[in-house]
Amino acid sequence: MNTTEIKDLIEKYNSQTATTEEKKLVEEWYERIDGAELTLNQSEDIEVKEQILTRVTSRIQKSAKPKRVRLNDVWLFKAAVILVAFMAGTYIYFKQNSRPQVSSTIAKINKKPIVPGGNNAVLLLADGSQIILNKTSDGQVANQSGVEVIKTKSGELLYRFTGNSTAGAAAINTVITPRGGQYHLILVDGTEVWLNASSSVRFPTAFVGKERKVEVTGEAYFEVAKNKTKPFIVHTNQSDIQVLGTHFNVNAYADEEYQRTTLLEGSIEIKQGNKKALLKPGQQASLNLKAAGIKVNEVADLEAVVAWKNGYFQFDRSDLPSVMRQVSRWYDAEVIYNGKIPAKQYSGKIPRNVSVVKLVEMLAYSGIHCKIENNQITVNPK
What is the mean predicted confidence (pLDDT) over 271-283? Predict the structure, then answer.
């Protein structure tokens, strides 16, 4: 396997397009180099690793431009080192198969590597059946009450009338993203919804009444199709958000202290019991069940609010638990704290597609020091 194939394989694993056999191979690499130390004869270990390293680095040097080091080359070298460790371990294992070559600590390791999320979601149909969208082929996935459900080539979920729908009939569907998942769907009225990790949207396949109402948990970004005669209502566990046609983001995770609704375009009305607030573009409404009331603030950086939709973590004077909750959801990894949580605020921007190792390096630049072990991210105060 050459270095290009190594890179392609790991990229396929991270994007969750790898076959079962390819996933197994990557996870075996992980198990051997990250999960435990190999118990090797020192002279054999050095000899084998040096031989393999010479061959692999030779390939890299031949393909690289002289006197220029690119990020991709550095990444490729790291991938090569992974292969070196794997091949060296395999060589010794078959040469000395009379004794186990992996230390006993492997039993304590969760074999699942920590990887960034991707387009993963489950569609729950009205009849109770479930469709795993990232494992479903493109094309029609369902037809309910005259509404066709299509998975497009770009990975979106599209609802559209077939022309023979029954008046007054509408089925209820739900799209759920797991930890480490996101999804984009287009409702039958043309409204677009982007779901962040660990979120859901429940909606009718057709809006047949006087309003268009959906229910959301977690975080979602909406671009609502305009219809002055039929308001669009987003229901969360704390509020109702009513719009006619607008762009806004709602963050309603149950583990966040506040529900925050941010308006980018148009106007929206927030209702919590008998309390109401009208938002203008650039404003954010914050709600807290422990202290009833709606607080409206101006948002300094709207881009930071919807950075997740555009493929980034972007922190703007965020506290450490807030930062790490986002990381935990996207990488589907438990975060634990070693010692007292520092009372600091952090700002920065990190691509959401980086490996967890690169993520930890980038967080360290902001003063957040982490260690990866046992499918956990441990935060160490400094």
Answer: 93
